[in-house]
Each structure stands twice: as structure tokens, then as C-alpha cells.
Design brief:
5-stranded parallel sheet, 12 helices, about 35% helix
């Protein structure tokens, strides 16, 4: 029952998001609620254009649908810049998404994330706080980090670790600089792991509670290209080549499940793959698991971010997609970090519950190719 209710909530959430953010009425309302920042509020401190095209020869994956869609996605975003903004003004940062608003209902897009450009602050909450509640935490200057996207492990790396590491390497974060992070992201087990095992533990984190609005005069924020993954991978302890064969599965109450998973089990058993559910493991256990992997099969999802803990140059990966949701999040950083072997299989389109099937014969063939090292 809980799984069915979770699927219903997911469908309703998708419908609400589509209506509020992507429909013509939703876009019109946002355009009337919020204005663009005034001249001089947003300034560029640093910019360097990057092009990751040279990492890809398009000989993989051996699946026409997956290769075509991965190539379209990768080429669309191949020339993203590394860029650092400085925003100055009479600014407040709301707690739900960490979005910044300049006095006069001017929304600051640079306070969001590239994955969630459609999101805007709640106008009623802003007006209520400004004219009725009027309670703010006063900060002169801070570094803006991730407002909410880091609730997902993949976005935590993309929108928190990568930009902060880039600023750190650029010498733009000192020991006393306040770095804004949502309290709910801060409490995530993987955030705590990075505090204990990386440069992030040396930094001065300013935790924003769910009911806390922050007034600030100046903040900086970085957006970085995929090239930064070369720096990110260096903060993970180097691992010897692994030996384990892992199939990262999903339990039935999650989306993007494989409907005919039972038909795939015989080939996984015959080829010596362990069936693992990340949700059954602590984050430390996930780290230890991925440190030992050599052959990996997984459904596209945030759990694949943990491949960063592996010895990627010796890693062999088969990623499973629905044909209606082929995304290059992991493909790109694996290729940039010189993965030994990458293949993908696109199954059927997502059904109403966001699940799909894969062809058993195609899957069997690809598993056998995967383990032919």
C-alpha cells in the first residue's frame, strides 16, 4: 500500500510541477510575480569556457537509442563554462529552495541550480516574511551553496561538492567564509561522510533551518562544467582495481523499476552478480561496496553517483534506461575519468508508474560482453 501511495504522490507531483512551471498559465504567472535583477546586482567575477567534446568518440554504447540520446544530451551541454558570480544588494534568501530575492520582487536566477531553473520562490511566503513576520538572520557576506538539490545524491555532487571544490581550488574560500547550506542537506549521511573524509570538513558551514530567512548584502556562487569532475575524483581515496560483480537493483516502491526483473535474474545469477539494494545499506557500507566493484550493472538513478568511489579506469559499466528517460549524468563523468568500458541498454518507454521493461535477449548479450575483460 505504501508503494502504491508513493507512486500516486509521484504522479500528482509531476502533474503539479507541469502545471505550475511549464504550462503557459504557470509561466505567465511567474513572469508577473517576479522581475529580472536590476543592472549591477549580478556580476561575473570569473569565467572560463570549457569543451568536453574530446572525451567522446561515440563508439559506445552499443545501443542505438541510448547512444543517440546520450550523444544529443552530451553535445547540447558540451561547452558549459566555469563561472563565478558575485551578487550584491538588499537580498533575502528563502529557506525552501535557497533562492535569493532582491528588494522590489527581483528574483536572482543565479541563486538556483542549473537542474531546476524553472523553480521560483513562493511569493506569498516572501511577502508575509517581508511585511508581517520581518524576522531575518543578518549576514554581511556568504558563499551560496545548494539550497535543496543536494537532497539527491547526484545533485549533491553536481550542485554542492563540485562548485565548492572549484571555489576552494581557486582560493576563493577562506577558513572564516560562511558557506550557506540547507539544514536538511547538511544532515544527509553522505554530507556527513564528506565532512569527515574530505576538504569540506575544514570549511565554515552556515546551516539554514526550514523556517529561517537570511538577509545578506553580498554572496558568491559558482556554476561549473563537467571538467571539474577531474578535480572531484582526486578527493576520493585511490582504490586498487576491484573484483566484485554488482547489480544495483531498486525496490518496488521506487520509480524506474524494471517490470520484468524476474526474467533477468537467471543471467545475473549465472554470471555471478550480487543483487544489491542501496537503500538497505548505510552510506559507509555503500562506499565500501563501490570501492570493491569491477563489473557494475545499474538502473539509471542517483545511486550510480557512488561509482566515484570505484577505480574508474578499471571499471566496466552497463547502465539501464527507459527509452523515454536517457540522461548522460553518469556517462559523461565516467568517460571524462577514463572508464574502461561503458555500455547502455534502453528499454521500453516509462508507464504511468514510471516503470519499464528491457529485452531479455539484449540484456543477456550485453551482460556477457560486459564481463569479457
Amino acid at each position: 500500500m505504501s508503494g502504491a501511495w508513493q507512486r500516486i504522490k509521484h504522479i500528482l507531483y509531476r502533474q503539479k510541477t507541469s502545471l505550475l512551471h511549464f504550462s503557459k498559465p504557470g509561466r505567465w504567472i511567474k513572469s508577473k510575480n517576479w522581475k529580472a535583477p536590476s543592472e549591477g546586482v549580478v556580476n561575473v567575477l570569473y569565467r572560463k569556457d570549457q569543451d568536453i567534446s574530446h572525451y567522446f568518440d561515440w563508439k559506445d554504447p552499443d545501443d542505438t537509442i541510448a547512444r543517440t540520446k546520450l550523444r544529443e544530451f552530451t553535445e547540447r551541454y558540451a561547452t558549459e563554462p566555469d563561472i563565478i558570480y558575485e551578487i550584491k544588494g538588499d537580498l533575502v534568501i528563502e529557506p525552501q529552495f535557497g533562492l535569493a530575492i532582491q528588494s522590489g520582487r527581483e528574483f536572482i536566477p543565479q541563486s538556483g541550480t542549473l537542474s531546476h531553473l524553472h523553480i521560483r520562490p513562493a511569493l506569498f511566503s516572501y511577502l508575509q516574511r517581508k511585511y508581517l513576520n520581518r524576522k531575518f538572520v543578518e549576514i554581511d557576506e556568504l558563499i551560496h551553496c545548494d539550497g535543496f538539490a543536494g537532497m539527491n545524491l547526484c545533485h549533491f555532487i553536481y550542485d554542492t561538492v563540485n562548485p565548492i571544490l572549484f571555489l576552494y581550488k581557486q582560493g576563493m574560500i577562506g577558513d572564516r567564509d560562511k558557506i550557506l547550506i540547507s539544514e536538511k542537506v547538511y544532515q544527509k549521511p553522505y554530507f556527513q561522510y564528506f565532512l569527515q573524509h574530505s576538504f569540506m570538513g575544514k570549511l565554515n558551514w552556515l546551516r539554514q533551518r526550514e523556517d529561517e530567512w537570511i538577509r545578506v548584502r553580498t554572496f558568491r556562487k559558482a556554476f561549473v562544467s563537467m571538467e571539474v569532475f577531474r578535480l572531484t575524483y582526486e578527493i576520493f581515496p585511490k582504490q586498487p582495481p576491484g573484483h566484485r560483480r554488482i547489480f544495483l537493483a531498486r525496490k518496488a516502491n521506487y520509480q524506474r523499476n524494471i517490470l520484468n526483473i524476474a526474467a533477468l535474474m537467471p543471467v545475473l545469477t549465472q554470471t555471478g552478480f550480487e543483487i544489491v539494494y542501496a537503500e538497505d545499506l548505510t552510506y559507509q557500507q555503500q562506499v565500501e561496496l563501490f570501492r570493491g566493484v569491477r563489473y557494475f550493472i545499474g538502473i539509471h538513478g542517483a545511486g550510480l553517483t557512488n561509482l566515484l568511489h570505484s577505480d574508474i579506469p578499471s571499471l566496466r559499466v552497463l547502465e539501464l534506461f527507459s527509452s523515454s528517460l536517457v540522461h548522460a549524468s553518469f556517462y559523461r563523468f565516467l568517460k571524462i575519468l577514463n572508464v574502461e568500458y561503458y555500455d547502455a541498454l534502453a528499454g521500453t518507454p516509462l508507464d504511468i508508474n514510471w516503470n519499464f521493461s528491457v529485452d531479455v535477449n539484449d540484456f543477456t548479450m550485453k551482460v556477457k560482453r560486459l564481463i569479457q575483460s
